[in-house]
# Entry
Amino acid sequence: MALDALLAALSRDVESEAAALIEGARARAAARVAAAEAEAARRRDAAHGALERERRAILARELAVAEREAAARLLEARAEALAELLGEARATLAALAPARWTDRLPPLVEAALGCLPPDPLLEVTPAAALAARQAAGSRARVEPKPDAPAGLFGRDGGGRVEVDLTLPGLLDQRREELAARLAARIEAEA
# Structure
């Protein structure tokens, strides 16, 4: 399916970008941990008894804080990379040339008609209007909308029931699943 291939390509792009962000966050975290460990060694050599225990406790807290901050930065970097990738994918899908997706229009029309009451309205890009009309036949009205994203949007006559089968809408429906799969891949490669 063309959408799956596009999503796979976008997934590879985000994986490499996310891996670079994660590697940078890990390097910064490692530097902070190394600095904290060096400070700990210096403090151990300089102190004795109760003072030594107190300094070790301080160092342990500082190290724990540094590790938590590094972990938070790593998670933040991953979330930003995933959000950026999915945002780029959404924009790319919205503007996808009709020649790249209109062959997938008949199943989208059938899915929309299966969810909508009789006499629905299907909105598509002007370039996809003919293909949508052919797929819908007399079962739905097809309205070309110049600002419509790739795919189709369907609604009943009263506007109470809507079906978003635009390519960006389909990506949004799978956003959490895709983000989880991408995050798992990034983590596995790290």
About this structure: Helices lie at 2-46, 49-94, 105-115, 129-136, 167-173, 175-189. The chain has two domains: 2-96+172-189, 98-167. Strands lie at 121-124, 141-144, 151-155, 162-166. The chain has six helices and four strands.
